[in-house]
Specification:
It is built from 4 helices and 7 strands. The protein is α+β, with helices and mostly antiparallel strands. The longest helix has 14 residues.
Length: 156
């Protein structure tokens, strides 16, 4: 999805990698996302589950992020399945200064994974108020309505 905020183009992506897909194959198929976003100078946010432990310092995803100048702003573990917690859910951006308050929340809706939440520092302009016209049914008379309805359709 692309959106404009204060004249700046933002691309927002949602990605998911199945654990059975190799990291190399995933990057081969989806690496264009980062390169395309970097070409046109837009800001981007990529959210999702990469099924790669980003807490490990040596992984190919982290290397690609370094080359593209992107950052994963999620720093705490998101998955507590097994003995050691892992960081599988990501929020990758090239505009980390425009994002704030990244937190991982334990949530009953998910079994062993935490929910990732973040906020932007970007504010969308306030839309101008518009008048809304509506009918009041406070003095509605159903009998008169039925009569008028039937009279109208008898004419046609």
């Amino acid at each position: 999805m692309e959106t404009m905020i204060h004249g700046q183009k933002w691309s927002i992506w949602s990605v998911s990698k199945q654990p059975t897909v190799t990291n190399g194959h995933f990057l081969c198929c989806n690496g264009h996302i980062l390169t395309d976003c970097n070409k046109d100078g837009s800001k981007y946010i990529i959210c999702g589950d990469l099924s790669v432990n980003m807490l490990n310092s040596n992984n190919c995803i982290r290397d690609v992020l370094d080359v593209c100048g992107a950052t994963n702003i999620v720093t705490s573990p998101t998955c507590y399945k097994g003995d050691a917690p892992t960081l599988l859910d990501i929020v990758i951006t090239n505009a980390h200064r425009n994002l704030q308050n990244t937190i991982c929340i334990e949530c009953d809706l998910r079994d062993f994974r935490h929910m990732v939440c973040f906020a932007t520092k970007q504010y969308a302009p306030i839309r101008t108020k518009r008048a809304i016209m509506y009918r009041s049914y406070k003095k509605f008379n159903e009998v008169m309505f039925d009569e008028a309805y039937h009279q109208y359709f008898q004419m046609y």
